[in-house]
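Section 3.1: Structural characterization of target chains.
Under the original work plan, the team committed to producing a structural model for every single-chain target entering the pipeline before any wet-lab resources were allocated. The record below documents one such target. The sequence was received from the expression subgroup and is listed exactly as submitted; it comprises 143 residues.
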Amino acid sequence: MSFNVLIVDDSAAMRAVIKKIVSISGFKMTHCFEAGNGLEALGQLKCNWVDVIISDINMPEMNGLELLKALQQDPLYETIPVIVVSTEGSRERIEEAQRMGARGFIKKPFLPEEIRHVLHDVIGVGNDGEYQSDQGNADECDF
C-alpha cells in the first residue's frame, strides 16, 4: 500500500528535505504535494486527496495550529492525520498541537527512521507498510 502525503512548510528547502527523508525512510509514498502555509494546504486539499499531512507550526498567513483548527472544522478533512514537525519541542507546544488535533509530533532535526515510525504509527500500518487490520484472505471476501 502506498500513500499520498502533503508537506506544509514555508521553507521550500525544508519541504524538499522532509520529502527526501520520507522517501529514504522506506515509507511508501505515491504522491507528495507541497504547500507553503496553511492556506495553500487547504487549496491543495481541494484538488488532491491525501492520507497524511506533515506540517510545520510557524508559517505566515496561516500557521500550523490554525491549519489544524481549520481541518477540525471541516467534516471532509477532520479525519486526515496530521503530524507536526517543528523546532519548537516544548511539552506545552506538543500538548497544544495534540489538543488541536495533531496525531504526531516530531522535533527538528529528525532521523529517517523516526519519521517513518511516526508515519506508520499515525496511519496504522506495520513495518511492512501494510495496514495492521489487513490480515484476512482476499479470497474469502463475498463482494
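Confidence is low (pLDDT under 50) at residues 134-143.
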